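Quick check before the chapter quiz. The format below is the same one you will see on the exam, so make sure you can read both the input and the output lines.
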Amino acid sequence: MTFKRLELGIAARLLGLFALVYGAERALEHGKYGLLALAVLLLVAAVWELGRHVTRGSQALADFLLAVKYRDFSQHHNEAHPNRALRPLHVVFNELSTTFRQLSVEREAQFTYLQTVLQLIDTGIISYDAEGQVESINESFKRTLELPFLKRLSTLQKRLPVLYEAISRLEPGESTVVKLTVGQKTMQLLLSATTFRLQGRAFTLVAFKNVSHTLDETEAEAWQKLLRVMTHEIMNSVAPIASLADSLRRDLSRELEQATALAPPERELLADVVEGIGIIQNRSEGLLRFSQVYRDFSTISPPVLAPVEVQELFNNIRRLMSSQLETQGIELVLTVEPADLCLQADVHLLEQVLINLVLNAAYAVQQSPQPRIELRATEPEPGRAAIEVFDNGAGIPAEVLDSIFIPFFTTRRGGTGIGLSLAKQIMHLHRGSIKVQSGPGVGTAFRLEFS
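Here is the expected output.
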C-alpha cells in the first residue's frame, strides 16, 4: 500500500512536470516570456517537490536506523502524517521501537537478576580480559579477600601473591586448592577457571570457594576412622599379651619364692625373667590405656548447644587454673568486649578446649622472664564471636606449625598429641574453626571463631 501510494504520487508529479514543460515550450513559441519564466519557476519547484517526495521515505528510514544505531527508541513517529504515503511506514517504525524497548527492558531485567544472584552466592567470582583488566567481581570475592575494589589482576600480585600465582597458573577447565592467609584468617580456596568470548574480546572467569571447613571435616573424619581401626586392632592384640604377661609374672614369682634349692645364678636369672615379663606387662597396659584415650577421642559426643556468657566462662577458667598458674608465677588476664558477649556452645566442651590451650600456653611461657597468658573475647561482627588465647612464650617453629593439629603429633616431652586435635574436632562440631599464629620469640595466639 505504501509503495502504491508512492508510485501514484510520483506519477502525478511527473504528469505535472510534463505539463509544465509543455507549457514552457508553448510560451517560448509564442514569445510570452513572462509565462515562460513562470513556467520555469514552477518547473523547478515541481522537480524539487518530486525529489522531496521520493526521498521523504528514505530520509525517515535513515532517521529511524540512526536511532537504532544509538539505541534511542524513545522517538514516536506521527502515524497521522499529512503525507499518507508515510503513515504505514511510521506505524511500522513505532511497532519496531516498542519491540526494541521491550527487548531492552527484558535484557536489563535479566542482567539485574544475574547480578543479584552473583552478589548473593557465597562463591567468589572474578572476570578479566587478556590484558588483565578486571571486568567484574562480586561481593563474596570482596568480602573473602577483603578487597573493596580491584581494577587490574596485577594488583593481587602485591597484596595476595600466593593467590595471584595460583590464578596465573590455572588452566581453563582445571581446579586447584590454594592455602591463603588474609588478615587473621587462614583459608583453603578451591579455584576453577573457564574462558569465553564476548563482543570479540577474550575473558577469563575464575570462581573460588572457601573449602577449609569441608576439608577439615573430611580430614577429621578420616582421622577418626583411622583411629577407630588402629585402637581396635591394638587393643585386640595387646590385651592378650598383657593378660599372658601378668599370668607368667605371677607364676614365676610364686616359683621363685618356693624354689629354695636354686643356685644363686639360676635364682638371679629367674628374677631377671620375672622383671622382664613385668616390664612387658606394664608397657602393654600403658599401650592399652593409650589406645583407650584415642578411642574416646574418636567417639566424642555431639555438643549440646546453649547460650554461654563468655565472662562467666572465663571466670570459671580462672577458678580452675589460678592455683596452678600462680604456682608457676604466670599472670592470667581476661578481656571480654562487649562485657555481655554471649555465644551458642557446649560449655563443658568449650571449657575443655580452653583448659587445653591454657595448659599449652603455660608450658610455652616457662622460660619467659614475665610469663603472661591472656584470654580475649571479641565480637568481630554482629552475630559472630571470637575467643583468643595469647601467650608471650617461645613460639612455635614455622616448620611444625602446620602439623600441630594432627593427632599423635607433639613437640612436648611427655605429651600425647591429643589436646589440639581434640580442640579442633570440638570446634568443628560447633561449626566453628581454630586458627593459630606464632613465631619464635613473639609468642603464640590461638583464635576460636564461632558463627
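If your answer matched, good. The longest helix spans residues 212-258.
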